[in-house]
Description:
Structural class: alpha+beta
Strand content: 35-45%
Helix content: 25-40%
Radius of gyration: 14 Å
Amino acid sequence: MKYWLMKSEPSAYSIDDLKRDKKTSWNGVRNYQARNYMRDEMRVGDKVLFYASNADPAGVSGIAEIVREAHPEKEEPWVMVDLAFVEKFPAVVPLDTLKTTRGLENMVVTRKGSRLSVQPVTKPEFDIVTKLGRK
């Protein structure tokens, strides 16, 4: 099993939307590295930190799970995966908290200039963020 962080602007699609819909196709990714992660590495059962970007505060708002591996979008060469709702945290774990929490120093999202919408996360990072989110 692998772990991921996937970003979405709440005005476009939020953790509440995913909770309501129960599952969704994660489409519209237009970055080759992010596409390659989805196409080549994501598998059914992988866990996802759902990250609210351009939000106040920006941060992790819950957990999702990959329920369908990469399949083509209408526009080649782009692909999408399907996510299912797992859990919404009581409060967003803000980016500032991620940046100052021991064990998350190397998390991709905490790096300066990190804008990739699909990022790998280690199991220890996933566990730390999940613990923070459930407080």
